[in-house]
Amino acid sequence: MTLGLLFLLIIVFVVTAFSAKRQARMIVNACLKDLSKEVTEKRDGYKQLRKNTDSGSLAKTRMLARIIQYDPAILKNDARLKELATVLNVDSICVSDGDGVLIASTEPGFLGFRMDSTEQSKEFMPAVEDKTFELVQEPQERGIDHMVVQYAGVARLDAPGIVQIAYEADNVFNVSDIELMRDIMRSLPVGGSGRFIVLEDGDDPVVFASGDPSENGLRLSELGFRQDPVLPDSVFIRDKPYYFQRVQIPDEPRRVLALMPKGEVFGARNRAMLFILGIYLAFFALFFFLLDLLIRRTVTDGFGEVNRVLDKIIAGDLTQTVNVRSNPEFLALSDGINTVVGGLRKNLTDSRRRVKRENELAKSIQKTLIPAPGRRFAQFERIDFVSSFVLAPHKGSDVLETFVTDAGRPGFVMVEAIGDSVSASLSMMKFRAIFRPCVPPATSPLDMLNRGMEVFKNEKVFKNQFLSIFVGFIDPDNRRLDYVNAGFYPPFLRRAGGAFEQLRDSAGTVFTTARPVELRQESITFGPDDVFFACSNGMFSYSDREGQLFTKKMLESCLNASKTDSAQALVDGVTSFIRGFSGELPPEDDVIMAALRFTPQAVLK
Description:
The protein is α+β, with helices and mostly antiparallel strands. The chain has four domains: 46-171, Beta-Lactamase; 180-263, PAS domain (Beta-Lactamase); 280-368, no CATH class; 370-598, PPM-type phosphatase domain (Phosphatase 2c, domain 1), CATH 3.60.40. The chain is built from eleven helices and 25 strands. The protein has helices at residues 2-70, 78-88, 119-122, 177-187, 262-265, 267-314, 328-369, 421-435, 445-456, 552-561, 567-582, and strands at 92-96, 102-105, 134-136, 140-141, 148-155, 162-168, 195-199, 207-210, 226-227, 234-237, 240-247, 255-261, 374-376, 383-390, 399-404, 410-415, 466-467, 469-475, 480-486, 492-494, 500-502, 511-512, 521-525, 531-535, 591-598. The relative contact order is 0.06.
């Protein structure tokens, strides 16, 4: 059946395409007759009109020569000469002597001009010796000033010389052949939306006149003209396909193309193809509808009931059972599904118990890692450092540790956790055990991380792992914080009198044992009222009741609105804002917060 349809489509395609091309040729020939007739009539009319206007120009010039013969004194009277130009309705008058030198003119700047000095004016020089000489020039540039004018001239009757009248370009009847052709092409389409195009000869022909005015004066290459290599009667112009035919206009030496959009030429063919396809598809739709109705009545009703129950089971209702017993196959299928669902119920119950125990274990481990909230470094009176920690329900614990090196320098380290639940908690316990020996001998944050990296390379737990770490060493005497940020969320700093700004250049490279990394140490020197705030990425896992996440812009607003007279006040302000935003909903990831400032007062109580 499909082969029969394909054969039918091929036959219809060939026959209708041939018919469409024949119809297109008939349309082109009919339009060509109209075009040829229009071109001939307008060109003849233009020639006759030019002949009449040229005859009128010569009549005025002869009359002027006769007036000068009877009254030569007029040549010396500029006012009368201009008055005469007005009476004759011409733009200017020029008269020369027997040497072709202008001795009178309504244009004072022309006096003394030699007629034989330019190609345009030299054409009138025979009138000096030939009393019968008469000439009407084509509109062209005037030799003396290159202005486009039309001159008519005759021989003087009173003495040797030349008498001329001139029309300026705006007053000259001048319809060029290009304007004539373009006007005709625009008014005579080919078919519904086709057109004729007249081309100048050349390797890359120029459009002399086209039914589409936007194409006039453009080269074929600029129109994207290209011929279809497969179909010789098809071309593309501006990526649009056309049927084309070369035609000839009588007395027109230029090449002429007739173009019709392919959609117009082959519209009937395309509609016929679509009609046949529509009938074919409608037949198959009816056939499959009847077949589906038969199968549904005999087979699929049972499957529909099975699927209905399975949808509920997939949605989580494991109390459902399948009870389709219309034939032995459905009976076996129902019993098999019920057996699998029973096993799933048992496994799910066991998994829930295991997950519950694992979460309880993870929380107990996490609690051992959580530092006590509040102010740290009580032994350093000028350091006001406060940390805070919020546990996520199912995430592994992040780490915040404070320490004092053998050299007496206080410091802190913040680490983003790896993985979820118990595995993350155990990894962080391992991290603390490995990292603590690196602290006492360290002389700087960079030294401490480099020592830690050497140890981690030999530990399988952290083999090829990536950690986000922030290590800071505090110098209370110089009010300075030296730190290394290895991929931790960039902290914020507020200078006295300003707003909190994020230290964008401090993100650094993530700490890893997978490949060598270059860590960079930086420093901040604090003024009297400068405040430092750091937090982990878990800060932005908070969301409100509508699911909107907490953003960096919200955090900056919160920091700038909070009190900064102590580190504790700043942390409390952020905590209070977060609780109001989330409505007591826990974060999806652990949250570390730390604030640092220097104070000249005694230890805060």
